[in-house]
Amino acid sequence: MTSLTQTLADFATGMRFEDLPPPVVAECKRLLLDTIGCALGAVGTESGRIALDYVGILGGRPDATVLGMTERSSATAAAYANARLANVLDADDTFPTSTHFGNATVFSALALAERDGSSGRDLLTAIAVGFDLGARIGSWMGAPMQIENGRVIGWNELGGPAATITWAAIGASASIAKLDARQANHAFGIGGSNSPQPTLRKWAESVEQPMYKYADAGWCAQIGVSSALLAKLGSTGFLDILDGPNAFWKFYGSPTHDDDALIAGLSADWQILNTTYKPWPCCRWIHHPLTAFTRLREQHELRTEEIDRVVVRANPFALTPIFREQQPRDMLSAEFSHAHALAAVAHDVPAGPLWYEPATMNDARIAAFRERVTVVAEPTSSNIAEWMTGGQWRGVPGGVDVHARGQVFSATADYSLGDPWADSTRLTDAQLTAKFNVMAGLDAKGASDVIDAVMTLDTAPVERLSGRLAVLSRSVSHSAR
């Protein structure tokens, strides 16, 4: 019987573009575009500046594009900077195991694709493979929730997004680097045993956030790239990293694992079709109340000045101190503040980096609105376990009670805008393109050229996308100064 580790290594190295169904190809393009946009939007932030300065210190061969820089850098350095940038604004996609790994999937694959002169088809294949691997690792270990008597009571003691981010990067890198199955098996062992720590609980209980939040996506992307390069050179790793009593799930701290979720439907049930996109740059758990809030505003034509207060009804994961913070002190804390997100939406701040500009953060009107937002538990969301399938959630009820005009307007959203499981919430190509344009800034021509390169990637080499990214990157870099 083939081991779990070898089964996934065979999958990562055996997949070809011709094997991908058209909807998967289309979703890979959408993920690529959205992730590039999220990274571009973060170039002018403090965390983005640090990532770019760090890459400048590292130096290296000019093999790959670094968004926000005029100079190219090594594949590992580019993967680091770009993946970190993509997660800075917390606007990147979220897979329904409560993790973000499109960032490392895209930018580990792109860095090696540029380095090796790969085709656009090979890049799209690597994105599909890497995302699938990250998703399956997350589903294997399950969402990091504690369940008592069938009800969710909070986060696991151990767990975190770093595992899925790292494994997605490993899978994407193994695919684009064209490792053979044995080399990929070693790459899995190298990367898996060097994955970052499960820091989720520390993050969830901390109001003051480090810049890398729960995991540095750049670090994870770099692990993926390095694992593939090392394995190709002959370095070895644990060949049974996903097997037996001491498998990855055990030393990463997961209380359970589901081997069926890891390999069921492999090569047929593509997980990228289940990812969710964010219309707003904040934690996904905030999106359900925000969805309810925007619907109420539109339905009742509520004006901001009419709103006396808002009671957010949040799921169990979004009740820790960082989510209840009314006056966040910096961007990192604001990304997880219900109050700040509602204030930004109520004042029609464009959903992008402007949410966290000093002019917005320090706006007296925004601050006053934040004070009128309180957070309580959404009673129907404690049964999230009932919404789970294969280790993934499908609906997470959240809502708002808006006090205005002497009345209370209430709404609950089981699905958030950006969820792919309902026509009413799935983001269209036009909506994703509009989001990209906001993130990319003022260079409309440069943004349009990148959009075209992404959407026609299966007909051209990666070099064409790289050239257009370089032009737009220079424009964004100049604007960020």
TrEMBL record:
Source species: Caballeronia humi
Sequence ranges assigned to domain MmgE/PrpD N-terminal in this UniProt record: 6-254
Protein name, as recorded: MmgE/PrpD
Family: Belongs to the PrpD family.
Upper lineage: Bacteria, Pseudomonadati, Pseudomonadota, Betaproteobacteria, Burkholderiales
Family matches, as SUPFAM superfamilies: 2-methylcitrate dehydratase PrpD
An example Gene Ontology molecular-function term: lyase activity
Domain MmgE/PrpD C-terminal: 280-441
